[in-house]
Amino acid sequence: MLKRAELMLRQADKLKCRVFLTPSEVTKGTYNLNLAFVAYLFNRYPALEMPDVDVDVIEETREEKSTLYLYNQCRRGGGKRG
User: Fold this and answer.
1) Is 33 inside a domain boundary?
2) DSSP sequence for 46-67
């Protein structure tokens, strides 16, 4: 996950939008920091378009998606029953 976060932040750096996040903060899923990053990106480039060149798309595996979902549910207290 850290590798993917670093790749994402490298792309943000190319757009001069890597301002306050580290890869570990991205993977921790800190909602307010991630939201602030996306807001900064869209405020800086409101009409951002897809590039014409081929872009390497990193697909998440089913296991990664499930693990991330469960992790986020536990952090939010979504796994509590009672």
Assistant:
1) yes
2) TT----SS-----PPPHHHHHH
